[in-house]
Amino acid sequence: MDYEVLSGLPYPLGAVFDGNGVNFAIYSSNATRVQLCLFNKNGTGEKRIDLPKYTDEVFHGYIKGLKPGQLYGYRVHGPYEPEKGHRFNPNKLLIDPYARQLTGPIIANNAMLGYIPESKKEDLSFNRHNSAPFVPKCIVVDDDAFKWQYPKPKVNWDNVIIYEAHLKGFTAGNSQIDSKIRGTCAGMSSRQAVDYIKSLGITSVELMPIASFMTAGFLLDKGLTNYWGYDPIGFMAPHAPYLSSGKIDELKHMVEVFHEAGVEVILDVVYNHTGEGNHMGQTLCYRGIDNAVYYRLNKDNPRFYDDTTGCGNSFNLGHPRALQLVMDSLRYWAEKVNIDGFRFDLATTLARDDNNQYTINSDFLATVQQDPTLQRLKLIAEPWDLGWGGYQVGSFRPGWAEWNDKFRDTVRRFWKGDENMAADFAYRMTASSDVYQKKGRRPWESVNFITAHDGFTLWDLVSYNQKHNEANGEDNRDGTDNNYSWNSGAEGNTTDKLILKNRERRARAMMASLLLSFGTPMLRGGDEMLQTRGGNNNVYAQDNILSWIDWTHISDAGKRMTELVKRLLQIRKMYPVLEQDDFFKPENFLWIRPDGKEMQKENWQFYIRALSCKILNKNKDIFIVFNAFNEVIKWTLPDAKTHQWRLVLDTSDTFKQGDAFIEIMAPAWSVLFFEQEVK
Q1: What does the alpha-carbon distance between residue 461 and residue 470 come to, in Å, rounded to a whole number?
Q2: Which residues touch 15 (CB under 8 Å, ≥6 apart)?
Q3: What kind and span of H or E run contains 287?
Q4: Cα angle vertex 366, ends 362, 367, to 5°?
Q5: Which of 46, 143, 256, 382 is catalytic?
Q6: What is the arithmetic mean of pLDDT over 577-590?
Q7: Other CB atoms closer than 10 Å to residue 16's CB: what's the count?
Q8: Where are the domains of the chain?
Q9: Which residues, in sequence order, are CB contacts of 154 under 8 Å at separation 6+?
Q10: Which residues contact 660 (CB under 8 A, 6 or more apart)?
Q11: 398-548+560-584 — its CATH code?
Q12: What are the residues facing 34 on neighbouring strands?
């Protein structure tokens, strides 16, 4: 290796080639020494170089002559005192928190443990085993090598339709895509993938985590792997198996192709915890660089972690350097990968203060709000975690959209037939005005969804009463029991035509409720073709056909659902009132009884499983009927003396589009959409 070691700059901004060499920098306030470890192309031949300078608690050095493609890692020296929160162990090769690319996936190995496995002293013991052969190496990259051609689409929030997809699962089972690139960024950027998403009417694809994540040992023991990706290690490096070419430009090209099609790319990001787990977990990165800085430790016993995530640890965004890392990561994705927005997993944890309390004035939320790059992006919070006071739906700052699980649960229960759901259903369909109609907030801030990656698929929601997670190897104990599902008369697969018909009707009605709702609809990828996962509502470790979209065996009902989704999104665009950016005034939105008269206060107190609404529109008013009864209901349409109503959509396909009505026998489990026609 022909290079020269210089002092460099104390800025931990990633090992990126600048044309002459590479600056390396690691922040650690408690370490005593940091060694840069350089490797040859096959990941061996380790050469260690002490970073020569320590400035502002940053170890740094510049290596002149290094080129893109160079493999590296770190070894960090310091006290190994777990009872005080310090877990330095230079026998462990560490991944750079700012690494832009890794050589391979991160798979748990006992050599990565900072302590001796099976030791009676547990994590208080000290493991001298060299972990370098088992740890993926970081790769020096050239951030500016890719030349962008297309600008970001910049879709207005009012017009956004989100499609949640798993990057691998979306293409892994598609035989029309080259087998060499299925399940990768290249597969996701194929014409088959992009054109399909565009054809549905989607504006924004939200990809489940693509940043490098690890598979834990307990999954390996069961023959499973981490499929969802919610155990991150590197916040900036993509998961290595997602790059079929082994080059970072493959990811950027994927974003470029979506932008060319006018579709935004939103990333599901996980900053609330890391895959290093609890005090008995791996030492791969942050734990070995400075455990007491990057994690929230128990104040009374810093050997252990304050865990509000259920994943073993909580990332410490209360520390300015940990917060800086997260902000630098977000700006990297936005500026160097052209990402359009982010969905923040367990976002409540990110906004907790030094006392572990959620606050709207947290350092994280305040820092994002003032950042000139991030404040222009789409920011979506999953507004809960598992800690005290963790449920914060409706409590994030104006300008933040939020996953609205109130919409999910209410719409499920309404179409399941639960009692006394009509009033709540009315609120959910109007962007949860009871939650979001407050100072500075807008309807689009309610991200409405019925299903997501976590839980039943839409088809399973109407096909199973209970979860069936036996394949996960946890005796069906994992996954939520609160599914608000109904199997329509038989559990799972059936050949009963009536049951299948009723399942399809209820699924179509729920889809219409979602895509005609006010707020921001989010469609789980696969529901538009009625994908089933066999009743498994927690497929986090199922990297197989159970989770992947099966493009080969789409049922006739699934094909009809795909066409319905396209039609619903066309309707949404045809009537701009459905995408307005302010909450309705009472006189512009009326809830109507089956007799055609306006709902009165006392009506909401009755057992109601069907209702309708009249929405004033500039050109033609619209009228929507939601019948969640299992039988036909006679419905008188409003203003019958002066108007007819022309049918635009019937989810049950009982009536013909274009026919005019003043009253109608609304089919069971159906949504009917009309536009006004003056006599």
Answers
A1: 18
A2: 22, 23, 24, 70, 72, 96, 98, 99, 100, 138, 140, 141
A3: helix 286-294
A4: 115
A5: 382
A6: 91
A7: 17
A8: 4-139, 398-548+560-584, 585-678
A9: 340
A10: 644, 645, 646, 647, 677
A11: 3.20.20.80
A12: 76
Query: Sheet of 71-77: strands edge to edge?
Result: 47-50, 33-39, 71-77, 138-139
Annotated active-site residue 470? The verdict is no
Q: Is 491 a catalytic residue?
A: no
pLDDT at residue 296, rounded to an integer: 97
Radius of gyration of the chain (CA): 27
Q: Which CATH number fits domain 4-139: 1.20.140.10, 2.60.40.10, 3.30.300.130, 3.40.50.150?
A: 2.60.40.10
Enumerate the β-bridge partners of residue 627: 610, 670
Please write the tens of the pLDDT for every residue from 284-317: 999 999 999 999 999 999 999 999 999 999 999 9
Which band of pLDDT confidence, cut at 50, 70 and 90, is reported for residue 678? low
CA dihedral 550, 552, 555, 558 (to 10 degrees): 60
Amino acid at 291: N
Total-model pTM:
0.97
Query: How many CB atoms are closer than 10 A to CB 489?
Result: 12
| Residue 657 phi, psi dihedral angles, 5° rounding | -60, 135
Looking up tokens 């748990």 gives: 108
Burial class (CB in 10 A: 0-12, 13-18, 19+), 18: exposed
d(CA 476, CA 467): 8
Mean pLDDT rounded to a whole number for the chain:
96
Going 366 to 369 to 370 to 372, the CA torsion angle's sign is positive
- In the chain, % of residues over pLDDT 70: 99
Gap between the Cα atoms of 637 and 273, Å rounded: 53
Residue 620 near residue 642 (C-beta atoms within 8 A): no
CB neighbour list of residue 318: distance below 8 Å, 6 or more residues apart? 296, 352, 353, 354, 363
Superfamily covering domain 585-678: Golgi alpha-mannosidase II (2.60.40.1180)
Mean pLDDT, residues 126-131 taken together: 98
Catalytic residue among 345, 385, 409, 543: 345
Which residues are registered as beta bridge partners of 315? 295
Q: Which helix (H) or strand (E) holds 414?
A: helix 405-416
Are 398-548+560-584 and 585-678 the same fold in CATH? Answer: no
Contacts of 118 (CB under 8 A, 6+ apart): none
d(CA 114, CA 123): 7
